[in-house]
Amino acid sequence: MTFDRLDLVSKLYQPSGWPRVLEAASSGPSSGPLVVDLDPTTFCDLACPECISGKLLNQGRFTPERLAELAGELVEMSVRGVVLIGGGEPLAHRGTRQVMRTLGEAGIAIGVVTNGTLIKQNLDELARYASWVRVSVDAGTRDTYGLFRPDRRGRSVFDKVIGNMRLLAGVKRGALGYSFLVITRREPDGTLVSNHHEVLRAAQLAHELGCDYFETKAMFDDGHHIIQVPHDVLESVDSQLAQAAELESETFQIVNSSTLTSLRARVGPVQPKEYHRCPIAELRTLVTPSGVYVCSYHRGNDGAKIGDAVTERLPDIWRKSDRGVVDPSRDCRFHCARHRSNLEIGSIGRGEGAREPDVDYDPFI
Q1: What CATH number is given to the structural domain containing 93?
Q2: What digits encode the pLDDT tens for the residues 67-119?
Q3: Which pLDDT score is estimated for 174?
Q4: How far apart are CA 182 and CA 234, in angstroms?
Q5: How many angstroms separate the CA atoms of 275 and 295, rounded?
Q6: Among 99, 318, 327, 338, which has the highest number of CB atoms less than 10 A from its own CB?
Q7: Structural domain includes residue 49
């Protein structure tokens, strides 16, 4: 089935998740999240200068034993999808393979966001259990990769990552994505350094590798506001994406993120919201070694912390916590990818939903 993986509103209308969507639409607490973002560790083997989680890195991890318990608790809570992500590099934790086995055998969909350096060591589990793996590459050549995604010794591991992606493409059951964050950096001497000129080259490489999609995204600042880019940079990106569109087929997509769409619209860094409670916070949550948070946008924000997964069981945290601690009108003035989903859930609550639940096809709302 072909679908738009970024059409988050349509994903609300799936039968298996519909009862909890209705709970969220009623403005009350839900019986449990449908999707959980899980950070196994805050360690990362790269040292990307523009990393939005840079201040949160190397601050701890779950023990392998606790991580295994968390996987069991997610099964117990009837979660439909888990995204292994971070802070750090999720595949750097030796317990992540067991998590994938536990979740996969229980029928829970698994997404993985990775830098790609450790795919080979986790190849069997990724190939067998992952619904999708998205690799953050942000370059089309070894030299540019080294500028924006150096390892901790300042070296480029581009060839290693591309080789790992080629391995996974040959054995995967789920989708493989090549992610390209459009980065601009102002050097101390005033020179503007960017990777934008390699969008087309990277898309061609993604196609050649056997990836299922190529995604471009815009940068965020520390407050998750979209960073504007010079007009000529955006024009260059759009021109290259137009050429890359010729590569599209039933098996390869060019995906434009909502952040890039916002850049084109020049809407600015602020996205006002009139609602005071986030319905999606009843359907998604973030679990990290430093705490359980209302959502990934608030990773590390003590004001959005609802529990401690190191010492507390996830079902207990969910039952006793108030996901309304975050007021979107006040605390989420950045561009949220699920703003439209929140508006739709509001419509569902008023009896104005767009359609009846149809078929299950992608649990990652």
Answers
A1: 3.20.20.70
A2: 999 999 999 999 999 999 988 999 999 999 999 999 999 999 999 999 999 99
A3: 98
A4: 9
A5: 16
A6: 99
A7: yes
| Continuous segment of H or E residues that includes residue 205 | helix 199-209
Domain containing 19 equals 8-349
pLDDT one-digit tens code per residue, 302-355: 999 999 999 999 999 999 999 999 999 999 999 899 999 999 999 999 999 888
Per the domain annotation, does 357 fall within a domain? no
- How many Cβ atoms are within 10 Å of 365's Cβ, its own excluded? 22
Give the pLDDT confidence score for residue 3 in this predicted structure. Answer: 55
The first and second tokens of residue 154, run together, are 């300042």
| Chain-centroid distance, C-alpha 269 | 20
Band of residue 50 on the pLDDT scale cut at 50, 70, 90:
confident
Question: Does any domain span residue 365?
Answer: no
Say if CB 110 and CB 36 are below 8 A apart: no
Q: Is 293 contained in some domain?
A: yes
Rounded alpha-carbon distances, angstroms, from residue 114 to 88, 204, 220, 315: 9, 20, 18, 27
- The tokens for 159 are 């060839």
**Max CA pair span of the chain:** 58
